[in-house]
Amino acid sequence: MTGDTLTAAISEISGWFEHYFRDIEQLRDDLGEAVASAFGRDGLVTIQPDESERVREIAVDFLRAHPRSDGAGIIFELAQLDPERARLEWWLRDGDDFQRNEFILNPASERFYDYEKLDWFRGGFHSQTRTIAGPYIDHLGVDYYISTLTVPAYVGDRLVGVVGTDVRMDDLERVLMPMLTPLPRGAAVLSRHDQVLVGSSGEFSTGVRVAAVPPGYARVPIPTPGLDLRLLYRE
């Protein structure tokens, strides 16, 4: 393998993620404008039907333009939601149609969706950075092996939550695998937690954690601001 081959693979992977996150940030800006009037004098979010419809339109437009995304929307910090009307503005692909994902937000319920503890919310909201969470099985959502990509969400200068999208791992593999193919077999894209997002061999299958670089391999950063992705490759 030549250095040019490695450089080309890193550049192509970096470019794909940068493009996708720029689109998510545009989704963030569009959704922020759509819900700007939803904050009452008490500072809580109350989404009115016309605002919810506008959010749906924006999210559906994003999903139609990004067929590898299974869901998209805006997730508010729980403390900023009116507890009597709290719901998430998250829309899912349902065949050729789209539907809202109705999460349970009542802490007293056994099915309470305590999303603020999850990596995709903590990264986007508390660290205020681009975040890739997963891969993981989304039992509360679409029951697929997915990664969730998020960015911090603002209304004006106010941090309100996160905006993001779910991407199925088999779809992500279809995108990234051709970028790994020119490298010797065994290359893999690793997350900030050293989990394999996509790998070109069974040894490094999606979800496997690579705690240490194996003999004969090297690991280099992929320039993806905020994501801390790495490329594992055979030397």
Strand/helix succession:
HHEEEHEEEHEEEE
Distance between the termini: 8 Å
Q: How many extended strands?
A: 10
Question: What does the main sheet amount to?
Answer: 6 strands, antiparallel
- Radius of gyration over C-alpha positions, nearest whole angstrom: 19 Å
Instruction: Give average pLDDT, whole number.
Output: 90
Shape by Cα distribution: elongated
**What class do helices, strands and sheet pairing give?**
alpha+beta
Which sequence of strands runs across the widest sheet?
3-2-1-6-5-4
Stretches where pLDDT is under 50 for at least 5 consecutive residues are none
Please report which band the strand proportion falls in: under 5%, 5-15%, 15-25%, 25-35%, 35-45% or over 45%: 25-35%
Helix content: 25-40%
Our count of helices gives: 4
Descriptive notes:
The model has no long low-confidence stretch (mean pLDDT about 90). It is built from 4 helices and 10 strands; from the N terminus they run ααβββαβββαββββ. It has a 6-stranded antiparallel sheet with strand order 3-2-1-6-5-4, with helices on both faces. Strands 8-7-10-9 form a 4-stranded antiparallel sheet. With about 240 residues, the chain is an alpha+beta fold.
